[in-house]
Amino acid sequence: MKTFNDKIYSLISKNANSDQYSCPECKKLIYNLEIYQCLDGHWCCKDCWAVLLGTKKECPQCECKVESIGLLSRSRYIEKEFLKLMIRCPNSLSMHNLCGDEEFDENGCKDNIALIDLPNHLDQCTYVVVKCPNSENGCLEEFRQNSIESHLQICGYQMETCMKCNDKIIRKSLDLHIHETCLKELVQCDYCDLFEERGLMNHHLNCICPDKIIECILKNEGCCEQFKRSEQANHLLSNDHISRLNKKVDKTLERIDSSDLEISELIQKQNLFSNQLLENGRILNQSRTDLINQKEITKQLISKNNKEKNTWEILNYTKRTFPKDISFSSPKITVGNYEFQLLLFPNGETSPPKKCSLYLVLTKGKKCEISFSVSIKNNEKNNYFSRKFEDLVIDYIKSTTLPNVYNVIGPFPIGEREEIYDTLESYGGIFNIPIGDNTTYPSELGHDSVVGWSTYNWSIPGAFQMEWSSTIDWSFYDMPFGWEIYLWYAYVIGDFTATSPSSNYIVNCTDIRTFYIQSQSNPSEIFEFSGDFFNYGNGQQIIYLNQGEQYRIYLKMLSSTRVYGTAFSQFTCNLIPIEDMVSIIETESLVPDIVSGILASKYASITLLNSGETDLTSGVTIGLVENSTSDQIFELNSILNTSLTNILVGQRFSIPFEISTKDDNISSLQCPLNLEIQILITDQTGTINSFFTSIAFNCTEFTNAYLYTFLDFDQSVQYAMVLSPINQCGLEDGLCNVMVATHGFLGVTRDPSWFAQFQRQQNLWTVMPTGRTNCGYDWASSSRLNVFYSVESLVSSLPGVPNSQKQLYKTDASKILFIGHSMGGMGCWNLLVRQGDLALGGACASGFPKLSMYISYETSPGFSYIDQTLKALLMVSIEENNVDIISSNLVGLKLMARYGENDTVVNPYHSRRIVRMVAEQSQDENAVIVSEVPNENHYFPGILTDSYMQAYYDSLTSIPPIPKTITISTLNPSGTGPRANILILQLTIPFRLAKIKLTQVYDSTGELIWYLDTQNVKRFAITAEPVRAEFPTTLVIDGKQQFNNQYFYPEYHFENSIQQQRTNQKNWTINADNSTWIQNEKNPSTYGPIRQIFESSIKIVYGTASQNNQTIAQAKQAAIYINNFWNNYGRGSVTIFSDQQYIEQLSHQDTSCSENVILIGNSNENLITNKNIIRSDVSFNQDNSFYIGGEDGYLFEGDGIGIAFLMPNRCGGNLMLVISGTDSLGLNNALHSIPQRSGDITGPDFIVTGPDFRGKGYGGIISAGYWDNYYKLSESNFYISEITN
């Protein structure tokens, strides 16, 4: 049977001119095909180009070179000319003749339509053949739409309302319903002749009817009489029945007493069972914790049968005199995957002379429990060694452990995402004030306005918890402020000694933002580390500790209201000696799922930590373990050119690679199955070192949710979960579409608690992206990009679908249903407000419009030092991520806000704010569907998946039309796509709100006119997609200028050519140059602010041009610091080069125009900064002081001044971020101004920090602002302060 599309093809072919619009290669009509052309204009359809270029990289007609489809241009002319062809309306054909030659129906449509107008005509054509609306009730009739009313008047399957019970009944069954089943119909009692409703008749008969014959209630006591219900009272009053009633009461009381005893026993058993369950749960949780903390121990556990015997001989021991602090280490003892050493202190470690200390030290492997014995013998006297031992540890190890006794100072208030403020800097700083004395320091959270030192002895070394409830009544503060008052910081300080042999250690602290380790023998030697604040499992860093030396650890402990919802906070730190030059961060290993026997996708990655003592500069090679099962099944191909890759000491680095099966005939991979990987690293001596890791695959079925991997915007491997559609919708006209589900704060995408709640949709892929990490950058910035890269990967590769079936699931990435919960609800609104033209609709549950409203920033101590101008400039750097300020973009979309009526986590106020704003701007009180669920809190089962939501999802099948009037808004073109086919490309004044108000009007001839009024817009464009039923023939911009052709982007855009900013006069011109302005001006790829540096592939280049080796070393450590926080917060990975190495790398492979670059050091210190500084409005002097705005501009000089600023690269398509200072303190402060998370406000286009930046936070900022469109100082977007203390 022919489809509707077949009918259209047939009608097109009847047009005499249709032959010239058949693809020259496949001869198909180009209806619904994309047409591409070579440089000489030779064209064919996209599918044919794909086949042709797969065999020969040239045009089949002129044989010009064509390397890929990406180098072809869309043949809009051919497509547009084709769409001018006239055909009869498909609804002109006979309703039922779909198999033979088409016959025109005299009752069909008579219109002739141009193909370009066909979709709009079909949307309105009343001759379309439709099924009866009552088909679900059984009606099989089909007819033209304009006949529907006459049919419904006689349709026997039309639903009608029963006048008695109000039930909906099909028309043909209504009489039968009334006479046989209607519960409200009056029927006559068979006994007493009274009338009663049918639904109440059973109750009447069983309880009321006086004439119904019933049995005596004492039937079980021997009375067998029957009588009418009206005679029951007289029957029971007989003496015989009173006696029987008394006996029944006695028996009932006996049963009650017995039941009470049984109930008491059951309650005791239940309590025992409950206690056992609680104990089992505690044991289970403890086991789970042990498994998490000791992940690999069960794989490597030394069994009782795995015994090892070793001998260690110390010659002439009794004849020698030993210095007081000397110690001896035995040769390594290898047992399984573990290595040990004996450590002997002849004079005792801490005891008086003539006593010894002997320790068993674990040097390789994770903590475990072992048993061992030591026999000590004097070979010269053939007897056991006679000296006394101070202690003999028969346990895990006597090695370096972190402290469990802490001095704590705090709490001090801190603001949300205010990570640099420290009040103790005003009194000398935490490294200089006395530790643990009686000194007190002012704090809003202390009695008498001060807090002092406290000492705590914690049971677990390296761990601590605190909420201050013994000294602070948080409910008292909670009343006026809200939960942002729970934000505090404190310093937790402890001392420890490095007792293991001198070596590198892996140090890692979870639930902490920053910590420091200070050498007590050299107090100026302080190492700073970033903690694994959200416990992602990838916070490992390196420190070298000298045996016998004392160290002090300073932990800056911060509370997190969003994590705990209270003032509670905690941390856990680990310190593990390491000898291997490389450690594998196994929590970061990533492979795709195996889905119904095939790899879901081809990308995978491992993450290495350089835990050695030298940089790895000779390249890294990864492959499969030779002759392993993996080697027999898979092939592995590296993505990076690892020969040009450096991994510095302490740097975490992710290596992406591709995997595939060797044999295409391998059709069914089965679990258990591991990917066994070998890493080869050449050290500085030329020795090749091998390291191994094994990654387990997860196997599942195509009908389940599964994990697929993809290359994200920075070429790192990320993952998403996906549910396939039920239908093979790729064969349908609209293809398959996409649902994007964004998770909440700390949500783990691969956790079943998230993905298992979703059901497969009929025609939608359900994509569940990660947002890079569990906290998802609040679905802004890098997280937002991650969403669309995950969708693009799904559409382009259809992960988990066999090659033979991919055609069945072809997907349209331009039609997306956005949903999300909590932080993901905010993400849902965020995606909708920025990419509305892609939206089928949205269902945003328990979301909020902006972070600074969810948790107020107003308690930030640093704000107390700055005026509103600087505060505004700082807040604008995150304002673009807010929903409310650009909520006009939501007008005309299909939206639902859902939340629990009693939500105590994200108050309904937040969702209601968005609802109100959209309704106001739509001038429609019902613009947003509101589902406020009674008696429910933040999350409840089905919040995104119950039948109510499913019905809503099913109703969203097409992109909604452009509203008659809509205002398109943006603060930053880098983060917003087109809305109503209008794309704002550049603002007149950057980071001021830009708007275009669109009003659609039809003139007297029926032509569509768009009236556009602009505010703060320098450039904008009209996009051809999404395809609309009708585009305007005329544009009228700002009421004056008229354009009568369709100028589609990227071929054309509109530019306000007036250069002067201090005017509201505008002169719009058509600009066909989309390259020159991008090279020289701010564009969406380079708009800033500073956080945009992390929205592309990145390299870090540190300077070596300084004559000061300490400056070079600090720059190098700064590069590692940035890499590691980007790796921790965003699963990013950066190649780090010195400036000289980068120049060498560019000579092999010039990537300078396709990547962002972070430059550590000014033009005196960094060769790359010096080469590119001409593109900025910053210039450096020989003494490292600098100007902003030229030599006649603003001079910044003196100690402790730092600067971080953006500038474009030489091609204009990517950014460079320069970080430098007038000295070491200045560089350090500038480094700490770089935003690490969403919501950090210290990242405009440029920021200048003063010497007290670490003390006063925002109050220590000397200058900040945003460049104009030419990367020059903008006086209207600029702040300067000359006194900060």
TrEMBL record:
- Residue spans annotated as Zn fingers (TRAF-type) read 150-192
Q: Name one GO molecular function term.
A: zinc ion binding
- Tell me where in or outside the cell this protein is found: Cytoplasm
Looking up Pfam families in the UniProt record yields: MATH_2, zf-TRAF
User: Where does it primarily localize?
Assistant: cytoplasm
Q: Which GO terms describe its cellular component?
A: cytoplasm
Annotated Gene3D superfamilies: alpha/beta hydrolase, Apoptosis, Tumor Necrosis Factor Receptor Associated Protein 2, Chain A, Zinc/RING finger domain, C3HC4 (zinc finger)
Keywords noted in UniProt:
Cytoplasm, Metal-binding, Repeat, Zinc, Zinc-finger
All copies of domain TRAF-type, residue ranges: 150-192
Q: What does this protein do?
A: Probable adapter protein and signal transducer that links members of the tumor necrosis factor receptor family to different signaling pathways by association with the receptor cytoplasmic domain and kinases.
The protein, known as: TRAF-type domain-containing protein
Q: Which organism is it from?
A: Dictyostelium firmibasis
